[in-house]
């Protein structure tokens, strides 16, 4: 067989890597709650998931029909031991062994179980007896996995609410209550390589501070940002601020290598008349912009260049949940498998029709929640080949432009660490590259070099050194 020339081999490698990047979004997961009486059959749900870019599913229990339906799909599965199981798991190693033999062994590896969560938000439950038994329960679960040679393949952890932090604002002040129980759990995560799973909800942060500027900060929309005076980092969205507060807390305990997993985050699309925040517009903005932010691989200020595994809440509405209407309105999909709203998860249309981005506000402007403001594109000069930011554009707008452009499926690897365009490592440089690439990949339509009137056309080539900005003739 003839050996292809070197140039052909290089091209094949590049195309292969680009394809893997476009299709690999293993950081996007979803919660599959079952407090409902109208859910689709597990087999239908498995097909639905395979039609999306969702690659991980978190169950709150161990429903064998669902675990079995996800066999041979390649979808990662998180299963859970309930809070009520913790005393038995803690006090009886045989209970843990039987639990693993019943809920893991019959399904693995065809069903890709990747994590077992022991309990949900136990450390903020107020039940001290349960809190003291959580670590022994996790240890016995780990030992049970080790006994069937799965200890290095399936991790064990627990899921925590943001209230487990005694301080989170600003993010650099993030810290845990230094109880023996918390220290033990963090030590377990560190020793076993298991993730620290947290439930950040910017929705609840907005609900407790329902101002327009808070809404923009929570929905990844342009805003004046919030400065962490200790680190001099200006945060442009609540999600990054909350995740970095957890990072700071872990670092303060010396656990810089413990991975963070966002076990739950979401926004309800409807609520009661006295509830602040629920709406389809806000839910679509939060979840859609979060997905774009994750796909951009920008990361958070304290964890740049990576996207934490993030499980959206939730796959379906759960009509039997008690409480206000919002508790039953977090679902991305209806029970008939249609979407409640489109955030670009479908493989057939990776992203929804590109929305107009909201205009960048002045620091004192009132920000409306609408992501659909009408804008007029700047005229395109006859010889313009590149789309770049206008001078004087705010960092908040540049960050929004960067998140949006990279979230549309373009290849933003050149501006990631080690990439040809990573240096200079500035927001302005990275946004300029991404904005131009998005414009060039969108048939160079003038409307795709608008970015809320923060972009302009240039005939001067912005390429430098080994960083090449694509261009095209008008």
UniProtKB/TrEMBL annotation:
Cellular location(s): Secreted
Extent of Low complexity compositional bias: 352-365
Disordered, as annotated region: 348-382
Keywords: Disulfide bond, Glycosidase, Hydrolase, Secreted, Signal
GO biological process, one term: carbohydrate metabolic process
Reactions it catalyzes: Hydrolysis of (1->3)-beta-D-glucosidic linkages in (1->3)-beta-D-glucans
GO molecular function annotation: glucan endo-1,3-beta-D-glucosidase activity
Enzyme Commission identifier(s): 3.2.1.39
Cellular component terms (Gene Ontology): extracellular region
Extent of Polar residues compositional bias: 366-377
Species lineage: Eukaryota, Viridiplantae, Streptophyta, Embryophyta, Tracheophyta
Classification via SMART domains: X8
Signal peptide region: 1-18
Family in the record: Belongs to the glycosyl hydrolase 17 family.
Name of this chain's protein: glucan endo-1,3-beta-D-glucosidase
Chief location category: secreted
Residue intervals of the X8 domain: 385-469
Entries under Gene3D superfamilies matching the protein: 1.20.58.1040, Glycosidases
Pfam families xrefs: Glyco_hydro_17, X8
């Amino acid at each position: 067989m003839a050996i292809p020339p070197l140039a052909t081999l290089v091209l094949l490698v590049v195309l292969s890597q680009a394809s893997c990047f476009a299709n690999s979004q293993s950081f996007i997961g979803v919660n599959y709650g079952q407090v409902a009486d109208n859910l689709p059959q597990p087999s239908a749900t498995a097909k639905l998931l395979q039609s999306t870019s969702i690659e991980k599913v978190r169950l709150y229990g161990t429903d064998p029909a669902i675990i079995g339906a996800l066999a041979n799909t390649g979808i990662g599965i998180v299963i859970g031991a309930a809070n009520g199981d913790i005393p038995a798991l803690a006090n009886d190693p045989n209970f843990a062994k039987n639990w693993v033999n019943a809920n893991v062994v019959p399904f693995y590896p065809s069903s890709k179980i990747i994590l077992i969560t022991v309990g949900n938000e136990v450390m903020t439950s107020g039940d001290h007896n349960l809190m003291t038994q959580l670590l022994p329960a996790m240890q016995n679960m780990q030992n049970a996995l080790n006994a069937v040679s799965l200890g290095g393949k399936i991790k064990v952890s627990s899921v925590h609410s943001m209230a487990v932090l005694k301080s989170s604002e600003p993010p650099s002040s993030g810290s845990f209550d230094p109880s023996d129980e918390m220290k033990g759990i963090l030590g377990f995560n560190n020793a076993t390589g298991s993730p620290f799973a947290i439930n950040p909800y910017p929705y609840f942060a907005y609900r407790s501070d329902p101002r327009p500027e808070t809404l923009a900060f929570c929905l990844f929309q342009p805003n004046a940002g919030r400065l962490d005076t200790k680190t001099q980092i200006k945060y442009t969205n609540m999600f990054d601020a909350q995740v970095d507060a957890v990072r700071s807390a872990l670092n303060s305990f010396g656990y810089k290598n413990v991975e963070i997993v966002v076990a739950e985050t979401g926004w309800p699309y409807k609520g009661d008349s006295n509830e602040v925040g629920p709406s389809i517009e806000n839910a679509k903005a939060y979840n859609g912009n979060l997905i774009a932010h994750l796909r951009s691989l920008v990361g958070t200020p304290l964890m740049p260049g990576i996207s934490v595994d993030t499980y959206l809440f939730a796959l379906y509405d759960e009509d039997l949940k008690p409480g206000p209407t919002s508790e039953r309105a977090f679902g991305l999909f209806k029970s008939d498998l249609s979407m409640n709203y489109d955030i670009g998860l479908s493989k057939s249309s990776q992203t929804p029709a590109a929305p107009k981005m909201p205009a960048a506000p002045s620091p004192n402007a009132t920000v409306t929640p609408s992501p659909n403001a009408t804008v007029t594109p700047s005229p395109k000069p006859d010889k313009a080949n590149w789309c770049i930011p206008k001078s004087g554009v705010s960092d908040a707008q540049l960050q929004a432009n960067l998140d949006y452009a990279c979230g549309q499926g373009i290849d933003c690897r050149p501006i990631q660490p080690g990439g040809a365009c990573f240096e200079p490592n500035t927001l302005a440089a990275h946004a300029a590259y991404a904005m131009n690439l998005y414009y060039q990949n969108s048939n160079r339509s003038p409307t795709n070099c608008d970015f809320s009137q923060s972009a302009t056309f240039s005939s001067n080539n912005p390429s430098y050194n080994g960083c090449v900005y694509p261009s095209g003739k008008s």
